[in-house]
Structures are given as C-alpha cells and as structure tokens.
Specification:
By secondary structure, the protein is of the alpha+beta class. The chain has helices at about 1-10, 20-25, 35-40, 55-70, 120-130, 150-155, 160-165, 165-170, 200, 235-250, 260-265, 285-305, 310-320, 330, 350-360, 395-415, 435-450, and strands at about 15-20, 50-55, 75, 95, 105-110, 115, 135, 170-175, 185, 210-220, 220, 225-235, 255-260, 275-285, 305-310, 335-345, 365-375, 375, 380-390. Strands 12, 13, 14, 15, 16, 17, 18 and 19 form an eight-stranded antiparallel β-sheet that branches.
Length: about 475
C-alpha cells in the first residue's frame, strides 16, 4: 500500500499528499457518536494511508485514477461535520480532502448566481455573497464547519428552509469527478426537460458516486425587513395544526420551529410556561409582506389557542442557533445521545411523535426523549427527535445507542414517515434504506454504484446496505 503514497506524491507533490500523524488522525472519521464513543473506549478506527489535500479538479482526477489502478479505497472529506458515520476510513484507505479546493469562482448579481469550489466553508461562502447584499439562504447549524460540496453530498437542509427551500432548491449546476476520473458538468439553466436530472445522482450521494468539485447556487437578495414572533400552545400536537394552516394558506416564514414541552422548558424557561409547547417564527422579505404575514400568522395561532410569548425568545434562539454541542462530555459520564430527524405528512405527525417518544421511553436507562419540528412543507413537516440514555453498565453504551435508533426508526416507519430529513444515511441508517426506497430502489442504487464504481472503492460502507469492504458499521 505504500506504493500508492509514493505514486500520489510523484504525481501531485509532497505538499498535496500529507502523511503527518496529526493530519491523518484528524481525517479518519466524522463526528458520528459511535466513532466518538469508540475513541473514548480505546477502539479507534485506522488512520488513512495519506490525506490528499486537493487544490484543483485535476488533483481529484489524478487521485481517483491512481487509487483505482491500485485498488485503494478513497474517502472524500469536506468539513468533517457529518453525524451519521459518512466518514469512517477503511484499513488501507486514502482520504481525499476538498478543504483546499475552496473559494468563489464567479458571482453574477444580475442572475443571482454564485459558483464555489466544493471545499468552500459554508460561513465563508455566505460572507462572500453578502458583499453584494445577497444571501445563499442556507443556514444549517453546522454552517461554520461544513462545506458547500458537503451540503450537496448530504442533501442538506438549513434553518430557513420553510421559505427558502433546501439545498436541492438552490443548486443550479455542479461539477463532479466520477470514480474512474472522468469529469461531469451539468448545465447552468434555471430548469431543463432533457431526461433525468443528473444533479440528483450527487444530491445525497454521500461521496459514493463521485467527488463534487464545483457548485453553483441560486442566490437571494438580502431581506428588506425581518420580524420575530412567538406563541406557546397546550402541546406540540396542538401547535402543529396552526403551523399546517399557515403553510397551507401560503404563508412562508423562513423560520418555523415548534418545540414540545420538554424542549421548551429547556430552551425557553423565561418565555414559555412549564408544560407548554413553544413556537418561534421569523418573517423576512419586503416590509409590506412581512407586516401582512406577521398579522395573518398571528391570527391563525391565536385562533388555535396560541398565547403570544415574549419575542425575546426568538432573539435568544438566534444567539445560540449555530452552537454545535460536542458529544464527548456526555459520553465521559456514561450517557449516549443523538438527534434523529425524520419527516411525515401532516396527518401522521401526532402519531409519529407519540409512537417515537413512547418507544424511546421504554429503553432501559433513558433520561430524555423529546422533539421539535423545524422544517415544514405544504404536505408535511419534520420531527427532530432527541434522546439521552445512561445504561447501567458502561459496556452497553453502544448497544443502548443503537436500540434508541432502532426504536425511533421502527416507530417512524410504522407511522408512515421517512427515515431521514436532512442528516443523510451514512452508516447509522444504511441498513434501513430499504424501508425508505424498497428492495427495487436499493437494487437500482446498487446497479448505479456498480456501473460507476465496480470495485466499490469510493467511500465504501456508506449509504448502501449489506456486505461491504468499508469501515466498521
């Protein structure tokens, strides 16, 4: 395997191909709880043979070509902020980092488009377009850690999605390098009817079908006005109905977040009475539209039994919205935890919530099971389910973690929900993919994978269920 490192260095140079121990260790995994737990327990996964810090599309092409010839696995790596085990480097693998493949290539204010290299940090990308009084409108909690290419590869959603859409609604075109080194470039048009949309092959692909190198996004003008609003309701189940009604009526506040009583007490103790469910909203756009929407949404909430709350709660959420808590302090105390974001039609939300929370409350050692809704659509919404559990025996931590996931996804599927809203599949959900797209759907993806990457060298072990040569599940 050392031959591949020598080959990469010969073609790309010493500066691009890194083998120093700190760099290798920093790129062997993402922020999946299981990887963090295994590190804590002294069972870390292997380091990569090398980290290729690609500086150009040509570097990506050369890396994939050389590794394919040598039958060496390659794991694409963006910001490393994934939470589902999308990055777990297999023994003898090479990491292909896009972080040096960064920067704004072209900004067209008239067309409202910006083309970035895929490794561009999300917050930096936003700042680059803000100079022209524009915004991407995509605000994942990980915006300061993630990359624009990673947004596409994981089919990400942001905190303003109810009005602005998700990453698939913002993506105009992309460039990607296929596993054999060929370059694919889609066309930059607002819409096309030319057969299947090839962008969809890479949206949510998690690096198994190719490496994204450039992304063009459709932008927005920065809003003229912004106004917060807050209400509390008897319960999350009661609060869901006014959210459904406002969306059905055509109102689109960018931020619509409804917390159950447990999360409301934790996040908004000053603004929300104990036992009540807190709804926070943000209205943005032309001043006249903001005023009309604020009034109409307020009326819908009050008619549904909502009680107006201190708008300072919205500002409090803004101040902390991009804080990304670490798992290690909890794990050190013997507590496993995670968030599981799912989605379902409006008619099934209450059932999904009750079944998922009830299932989690039956896990031995459970400390907390709670949820909130943060992304809504005409035909349904998501639920962001949180659990914390402390098993009696620390040796049972990983088993308890997996049991919490199993029960939550079982309840989701039984209620007719989708198993992932925006974090992706990675390893934690891959064996449940059949619940989402069926046996035929999995077979279709396998056929596509085999056609593009017959030796399963590009990010093996991710997305597709079943036997794999990839890292630990």
């Amino acid at each position: 395997m050392e031959d591949i490192v020598a080959s990469l260095r010969k073609e790309l140079g010493e500066r691009v191909v890194r083998t120093d121990s700190e760099v290798l260790s920093a790129h062997r995994r993402d922020t999946w709880v299981v990887s963090d737990l295994r590190d804590l327990e002294g069972r870390p996964g292997p380091d990569p043979l090398a980290v290729v810090e690609a500086c150009s599309t040509a570097d990506v092409v050369a890396t994939l070509r050389l590794c394919r010839e040598a039958r060496v696995p390659v794991v694409p790596y963006g910001g490393g902020s994934g939470v589902c085990g999308g990055v777990v480097v297999p023994e003898g693998g090479v990491v292909l980092s896009t972080r040096e493949l960064s920067g704004l290539l072209h900004l067209e204010p008239h067309d409202l488009t910006a083309t970035f290299r895929a490794g561009t940090n999300g917050m930096e990308a936003e700042r680059l377009v803000e100079r022209e009084c524009l915004t991407i409108g995509h605000w994942p909690q990980s915006i300061g850690l993630s990359t624009v290419g990673g947004w596409v590869a994981t089919r990400a959603s942001g905190q303003y999605s109810t009005a602005y859409g998700n990453i698939e609604d913002m993506l105009l075109d992309l460039e990607a390098v296929l596993p054999d080194g060929r370059i694919l470039r889609t066309r930059r048009t607002p819409r096309a009817s030319v057969g299947p949309d090839l962008r969809q092959v890479f949206l949510g692909s998690e690096g198994v079908f190719g490496v994204i190198t450039e992304v063009t996004l459709s932008l927005r003008r920065r809003p003229e006005a912004s106004r917060g609003q807050a209400f509390h309701f008897e319960s999350l189940q009661v609060g869901i109905e006014p959210v459904r009604r406002m969306i059905a009526a055509g109102w689109r506040p960018p931020v619509v977040r409804l917390y159950d009583s447990r999360e409301s007490e934790r996040h908004f103790p000053e603004a929300c009475p104990t036992g009540r469910a807190m709804l926070i909203l943000l209205h943005e756009g032309p001043s006249s539209l903001v005023d009309v929407q604020y009034s109409a949404v307020g009326e819908i909430c009050r008619e549904a039994g909502g009680v107006e709350a201190d708008v300072a709660a919205v500002q409090k959420w803004f101040e902390r919205r991009n804080d990304v808590p670490g798992f290690r302090p909890f794990l050190e105390q013997g507590v496993v935890l995670d968030t599981i974001e799912v989605a379902c039609p409006w008619s099934r939300v209450a059932e999904l919530y009750q079944q998922a929370i009830g299932a989690l409350e039956g896990v031995p050692g459970i400390l907390l099971a709670s949820a909130h809704s943060s992304h809504s659509y005409r035909s349904g919404t998501n639920l962001y389910i949180t659990f914390l559990a402390r098993p009696e025996d620390r040796d049972d931590m990983e088993a308890t973690y997996r049991e919490c996931w199993r029960r939550t996804l079982d309840a989701t599927v039984a209620a007719g929900g989708g198993i992932s809203h925006h974090h992706g599949i990675g390893r934690v959900r891959r064996d449940r993919l059949v619940d989402e797209i069926g046996v035929s759907g999995v077979a279709l993806l396998r056929s596509l994978k085999h056609a593009l990457d017959p030796d399963d060298l590009l990010n093996p072990g991710v997305l597709l269920p079943g036997p794999t040569s990839g890292g630990a599940a």
